[in-house]
Design brief:
Elements: H1 2-14, E1 29-31, E2 57-63, E3 97-99, E4 106-109, E5 112-117, E6 123-128, H2 142-153, H3 157-162, E7 166-173, E8 176-181, H4 189-196, H5 203-206, E9 225-231, E10 234-239, E11 259-265, H6 268-276, E12 282-285, H7 288-293, H8 298-301, E13 305-310, E14 320-324, H9 334-342, H10 346-352, E15 358-360, H11 378-384, H12 394-397, H13 412-424, E16 427-430, E17 433-436, E18 444-449, H14 452-467, E19 471-476, H15 479-487, E20 493-497, H16 506-513, H17 532-543, H18 547-563, E21 567-569, E22 571-573, E23 576-581, E24 584-585, E25 604-605, H19 607-622
Length: 623
Amino acid sequence: MGFQRRLSVLICALLLIPPSICAAPPSHGFAHFGDLKYPADMPHFDYVNPDAPKGGELRLSIIGSTNNLNPYVDKGLLTRDISPIQRLGSWIYDPLMRYSEDELASYYCYLAESVEVADDYSSVTFKLRDNAYWHDGEPVTMEDILWTWEVIQNASISWRSYFRDVESLEQIDDWTITFHFRDDAEKIPQLIVQVGKFAPLPKHYWVDKDIYETTMTPPLGNGPYRIASAEPNRIVFERVNDYWAWDLNVVKGQFNFDRIFFIYFFDRNVMLQAMRAGLIDFLLEENEHNFATAYDFAGYHNGLFKKETYQMGYSYGMHFGIVLNTRRPPIDDIRVREALTLAYNFEWANRVFWHNGMDRNNTYFARTGMQSKALPTKAELELLEPFRGQIPDAVFSRPVELPKNEPYGRNRATLQRADMLLNESGWVLKDFERVHQDTGETFNFELLYNYGAHERMLVPFVDNLKRLGINAVLRKVEPNLLVNRMRNYDFDGTIRKYYTWKVPFPVGMRGKFTSPYADLPNMTNYAGMKDPAIDFLVEKVAAAKTEVDMNTAGRALDRVLLHSYYLIPDGNPVGRHLVYWDRLGHPPLGVPYTNWTGVPYLWWYDEDKAARVDAGLAEIEGQ
């Protein structure tokens, strides 16, 4: 593709045609870096089982509840795997292109038949497949594409933000559409990736309904699954037998279960008991302690229940971290944030709670080329030097290293350092209470959580804060209330996941880290970051034309984020733990570039294994 693109630019120059209207020839996919791995006539992706049997059921679990099946509004609790712009996409709406799981950043045509990218990335043109249809038999048309674009203009802020760089859509003919990007948008490959996630809605279905309101009525889609039934505690997806795309090579070997149940629980311990009782088929176990101790029961000992661990072939990001809300004093003081970070004894928690199964998060970009190490390189310094004096001096002088505490007993040395930082910031001890030396105000800190397993790791942290004289309160909040408080940034600290990818999405990075999103409601810049250096470096990552440039900017960004103490890093798992009843089959796990389990896309129901499990359970119950 690189040679063809250079050739097309040369032809444009010779013909005195503006290069912006020239494009590489239509292709079956788009590679962010390098070339596509798979040719247009590939039979299927290498990481799937093309002979996977179809049928059976899969019961999955989620903590919380749901009350919304409409991804175009920022209200309610959206059901999983329904929004096209989520990382794993939607099961009921087909996007223009689909991500390849065993490449760094390649996308293949799905609802689109071909993609044609302007050489200067000012536009991208898709030719739609003419055989795609909705679940009611109506064809997917250009009218659906254009109407959906109108919907997005007035949809939730997350949608408008996601497509903010698109200026307009131009219909070329009945099956061809061009996305034109704004003049002031950075012309980068990521624009093509973002637009590739565009998934149309059926205009004829929504025309007499309110697309901007929450709903629990199963919507009409065109994907491999439809929603068969929906309740606040259970969603049932049903495989579409006459799905239009079953013969596409990008679909072969996938979406194998006839029915998939999402069962919602408010309490993880109850969910764990349901798993042991056989009411749930599969669980990604992220609690190291539970994986080591909670599955010692007859089903496991009789070989009916599986425990597997595999090494991740992809980035994991920050996993869990305690986000500190810098919109609120005294957390807006970097010395206070560093003191709070010092009070968290990861080594003790890792030994006691996680069976030493976690690595400390010393980066926002674990297992990627964007992970910072040692001191900044010359290339990184070129990006950082303009901000000297505006960002912490430690960015230039110290590697990113979090304190290592004693895994047995109290972390006295780090608590002494925390006490010194608090004193420097004006928060002093008076009668065993941390107060401001000028106002006498008490240092209050409320830490929110809603996942029971987090309580064990947070209680010792809160105890350390109290030893520092801070009036710290650990508060468990119901999921609905926590969502609302997070949307309005009504918290001091809370525990969140910070996933990332080897090629981060600019929209996601901007939403998490940059100034324009710090005060908008319902965004993911929970820490309230407003740092010109971070804004600049995020855009450098987004605009990178090569993997080397992206990683250089990413490492510089990583240093600024970590040395600014916006969150208290916890750990990320050494491996991924899966527990499941042995009714299921799956392809090899840990494929390069992948970080997910492949559930439910790549797994399948094995009738012979299921019969063995059912017979074994009946025998256990009869004993």
